[in-house]
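Pilot study result, target chain (120 residues):
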Amino acid sequence: MNYSYGSFTDEQIQVNERLMHAEVHKLLLYKDKNINQKIFDSEHDFYCYFNNLLYRFAGLNELLFCPVQMVGLMATLQSAYDMVCGDSFNYCEYRRLILDAHTYIKDIFSAESEGEKCHH
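Predicted structure:
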């Protein structure tokens, strides 16, 4: 996969895609009342993690030549973030947003092979 400063190997892309899925999945696990595993030490740590994830993922936009799916990914994650920060948290809606984010991640990396990106 080509990016702004060169190219990534297929293995690098596959590993990164799996890591992104794992990072997003932590957001779901933390809010799932049925999960007893300690994911974050505090709500503050969760919010910091989520916010940092948004910034880091946004950095991929220019780096990967503006994949069209990035808009959907970032909008979906921002909606999930707004939901957890707001007064009307709904786990079912939040879960749907996080699962949708997984689809966008998959699509970002599969679209590269199909040449689906914006051009500068």
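One observation from the pilot: Residues 116-120 have pLDDT under 50 and may be disordered. A full batch analysis is planned for the follow-on phase.
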